[in-house]
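Exercise 7. Given the components listed, write out the predicted structure of the assembled complex. Treat all entries as one system.
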Amino acid sequence: MPRFAANLSLLFNEYPFLDRFGAAAAAGFEGVEYLFPYAWRREDLAEKLQQHRLTQVLFNLPAGDWEAGERGIACLPDRIEEFREGVFQALDYARALDCRRLNCLAGLWHDVDQARPAWDTLVENLRFAADLLAPEGITLTVEAINSRVDMPGFLLDTSARAMTAINACGRDNVLLQYDLYHMQIMEGDLCRSLSRLCPHIGHIQFADNPGRHEPGSGEIHFPVVFAHLDRLDYQGWVSAEYHPLAGTEAGLGWLHDFKETQCE
Ligand SMILES: O=C(O)[C@@H](O)C(=O)CO
Ligand SMILES: [Mg+2]
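Answer.
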């Protein structure tokens, strides 16, 4: 059975942020992730993890001005210094939270005919981050995000593009973050791509499509996909990263169903 984590930026929004840890643990999650930890004190986050016996599964490197629409700075040639400072900041938090995975968002790049500078910058930045994180035993993940609905212009919008960056970077501790929701929109054929990419996957996230809501609300057959991950012997975390339709707890039927079938 996959190890399920809850993304606290999207789930349990009924509670103030620091109360979401307890709510996730009470709902049966063993791990948590969120987009960014930087607005909170490391000590407070570490205390919540310890109090509720939760694993900090992952969070993102600083990704620029999120409110202003930025979605990562790793591919931006004029932001290299800021990217590198961000890696140090993320490492500080990762140490305090004993977090073994950090995700890098490549960023938006709208000039498709002139993408070379973005790719070169991205690959150099990935190498910089990977080399800093490797001695700490931390994996750097690179997420492919759909450019059709959620992030028009995102540089790495297919698994092939993300793998091109990962291969070009050439570091063992850089792996793919495979988000079932984004890949369903861009590529489909989820089980076959999971089979092919499994050795390169460092983290999985999910939401149903369309709508980015809980499993069962859309077209993805999650029991089949989760069983497929077991058959592939995928050992990583699988994180719920969706907008609950009618309250987080009310939308956890997929988790309860899944746990029940494991007990039968
Ligand atoms: O899928 C997503 O959107 C996230 O994993 C993320 O970190 C950036 O929004
Ligand atoms: Mg994601």
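Discussion: Residues 3-263 form a domain with the TIM Barrel fold (CATH 3.20.20.150). The mean pLDDT is 98.
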